[in-house]
Design brief:
mainly alpha, disordered C terminus
Length: 320
């Protein structure tokens, strides 16, 4: 029993990292087979169909009635950025960028989030964190520029890379909103409510931009695209968050977040195995720098007790 208690949370966190890593090749398959906004709306509608009953079963629905207008405003802003914005850029970007490369670009999430937290909230850095931030940022630049950083100064960034950078901006904004307006809200309520609000926004955007034909096209897509979409909805969203929450509860947010460092590595490897994507020198060098930098940031923050951020925001910093 004691062995199960010790290894259980660790095994579930490894499973979480596998699911979030696999979300990148799965997203690439969905992006190639379905209209992006329609697919994103279906993903989060399906996820909400699991998360809302889970919230009800956990007794969280009663707490929603006591939320203030400010909290609902924060949830709406979080849904608009962390679900609507992120999911839109995620699938549109994966129409143009290999999944493995996109998974490494997302390592900029914790770098920019922490940099803005220092500026906005006065969070303090130490040498380890600063070194990790610099290393992760340089690694992402190597990946984005295909190993030729000087080209970025000439504006040579592709559409796909810009869209994935849009994911970064949305997720950083979502995380900071969570810290500013959603402190004290449990992770399940945050995830369920923002997923539901974001799904409604995505559905409205799909109908406005892609028209009813977009949803019809998505609904009539092939079995491979639907298999990947179901995996994103139930595996990479509902189940992965459940395992992440369990890990945070058992081990603490610091230890659990360390497993997120595995996500880009798993994303690159699964993209190569599943989709046959090549792993060139810029991916190896830049990806290695980004992953080591992220690990250093996590290591440097362990001794420091920081205000809680909703685990839904902390969790995908490199996932989804």
């Amino acid at each position: 029993m004691s062995l199960h208690r010790f290894f259980g949370p660790h095994l579930r966190l490894v499973g979480m990292a596998l699911l979030w890593g696999a979300s990148w090749p799965a997203g690439r398959i969905v992006a190639q087979g379905m209209p992006p906004l329609a697919a994103a709306s279906l993903r989060f509608l399906l996820a909400a169909a699991v998360l809302l009953p889970w919230l009800y079963w956990a007794g969280g629905m009663q707490g929603l009635r006591r939320w203030s207008a400010r909290r609902w405003l924060g949830m709406t802003a979080a849904g608009a950025t962390g679900v609507f914005g992120y999911a839109s850029f995620f699938l549109m970007g994966l129409q143009h960028v290999p999944a493995g490369k996109a998974a490494l670009v997302i390592t900029l999430n914790p770098v920019l989030t922490l940099a803005l937290a220092v500026w906005l909230f006065g969070e303090r850095l130490n040498r380890t964190i600063a070194l990790g931030m610099a290393l992760a940022a340089c690694g992402a630049v190597v990946v984005i520029s295909h190993g030729q950083p000087q080209h970025l100064l000439q504006g040579a960034v592709g559409l796909g890379e810009l869209l994935i950078l849009g994911c970064v901006v949305c997720w950083v904004t979502y995380t900071l909103i969570g810290r500013w307006m959603l402190t004290g809200v449990d992770a399940l309520s945050t995830t369920a409510v923002t997923s539901t609000l974001g799904a409604a926004m995505l559905l409205a955007a799909s109908l406005a931009v892609e028209g009813p034909a977009g949803l019809q096209s998505a609904l009539h897509s092939g079995s491979q695209a639907w298999g990947a979409l179901l995996f994103l909805a139930f595996g990479a969203t509902a189940l992965a968050y459940a395992w992440y929450f369990d890990g945070v509860k058992a081990l603490g947010a610091g230890a659990a977040s360390g497993y997120i460092t595995l996500v880009p590595v798993i994303g690159v490897l699964l993209s190569a195995l599943w989709l046959g994507e090549s792993i060139d020198a810029s991916i190896v060098l830049g990806g290695g720098m980004a992953v080591v930098g992220t690990a250093l940031m996590n290591w440097g923050r362990r001794p420091v007790r920081v205000p809680a951020v909703p685990p839904a925001a902390a969790g995908q910093a490199t996932a989804r």
